[in-house]
């Protein structure tokens, strides 16, 4: 017998837990969270590599409706963020709603009954509404390099760190120099015998103004909440100004590029190494990274930066294009995630029996980043074109939660059993988005990045101020949607089919 709930949430990261908290705060208790892992936390459970931390200040990178006045640092380390997320479970009594170890295998829309039928590894569920919070960066991506399968040592992705594999005294290769690698390279450089860092494209790196949050600040944030709100608003505003350069006037980022060049110059004495670390694309085209210890780590005697392309992996070495062999015992991949081809899209089957992955064969699209034509009562959290290059993803998640909660209210008020965005509305929305994306630094900055899909289309980022997205999703607007009432379903249903 399937377990039925009004709302089925998939994923227990910031999105899924945030959705659960908002539902409870709205007086809704009939929901479950289906999570494949045996713990909550998502990104912050999986990315427990040495040095992992957020790169948006914690007071903004946390849920506004579940504040934490006691963040230890401006950029809190992973264990603290993970504890914060675990804490939400107790703070909002979410344990009865959690179904850990429940990987979504298939979610199929039953149009006759107007409900989702969901199969997980551990049981089946039905629900009126399906909320997908499976994360844009939750499926690690490994590069297709010849010979990887024959590697005789230990190889793993940074989001699946092998804590049982001691790196002390080993020869280690790191492939990739993105946001994760620049955090763990300085940590492991001190531990290993030899570290070879393989870089395809250098990132732009600016100083990381991290500092402990003082006892006085903790006291103020706890006892005078407006001070915490003011700190949050200050971070938000400062970050938001970057959107101008990224989306309209890339030249405005020249000052940030100058800061990054100065940082490189101050931290790397060797001009030849500096040259190889200086990006040749416009700043902002790829994520701007923050670090004070990555460049110094690369200058260590036991660390080598290799910029020749990798040709293949041998059982005991990485071989680069010139035929040079770099002997290694361990390979750590800091090569990012399947951001433009999320695996969950293969598991979701819509009204006409088509999979979300098929609907997205030419690239991911949604309406307001949240709903998709052909997939009634489906709400995506961090869906297509909701990602950010400059500020906190939590702001986007919260905006989408406003949309979700007001959609549920609208459905209840008018006895609506199914909402589905009109194909024309979705198309027009995306045409507008793509026009706006044309002039952005991500599309014109001269880099290859995971923001663009295999067709060169930017299906990941939101091309404007985040408050514009907040305004767009402030409340569910039924215009642009096809709505079906209970009455219509009842008449369409064969009598033996139960109606929710
Ligand atoms: C290392 C790292 C650092 C980051 N730092 C920042 C930062 O500083 N600022 C920022 O704004 N963003 C940052 N991000 C982006 C980050 O992913 C988002 O901010 C946010 O954590 C996403 O939350 P989420 O709940 O949507 O996804 P996730 O945290 O990825 O959670 C998704 C959950 O869904 C589960 N799941 C996936 N598939 C299934 C399935 N089929 N069935 C059941 N469960 C499933 C996963 O196990 C996971 O628990 C970072 C990302 C990474 C990888």
Tell me, what's the shape? globular
Low-pLDDT parts are 492-500
Cα-to-Cα separation, first versus last residue: 15 Å
Strand content: 15-25%
Radius of gyration: 24 Å
Q: Fraction of residues in helices?
A: 25-40%
Put simply, the count of helices is 15
What is the makeup of the main sheet? Answer: 8 strands, mixed
Broad structural category? alpha/beta
**Structure summary, number of beta strands:** 20
| Bound heterogens, unique | flavin-adenine dinucleotide
- What's the rounded overall pLDDT mean? 95
Structure description:
The protein has 500 residues and is α/β, with parallel strands linked by helices. Helix content is 31%, strand content 19%. The chain is built from 15 helices and 20 strands. It has helices at 14-25, 43-46, 78-91, 181-189, 215-223, 225-247, 254-267, 271-277, 294-298, 356-359, 393-413, 423-438, 441-444, 466-472, 486-492, and strands at residues 3-10, 31-35, 98-100, 104-110, 115-120, 123-132, 154-157, 171-175, 194-198, 205-206, 289-290, 303-306, 310-314, 317-320, 325-327, 330-333, 348-349, 378-380, 416-421, 481-485. Strands 1, 2, 3, 4, 5, 6, 17 and 18 form an eight-stranded mixed sheet that branches. A five-stranded parallel sheet has the order 7-16-8-9-12, with helices on one face. The chain has a three-stranded antiparallel sheet with strand order 13-14-15, with no helix packed on it. It is globular, with a radius of gyration of 24 Å. The structure holds flavin-adenine dinucleotide. The site of flavin-adenine dinucleotide has 32 residues, from helix 1 and strand 2.
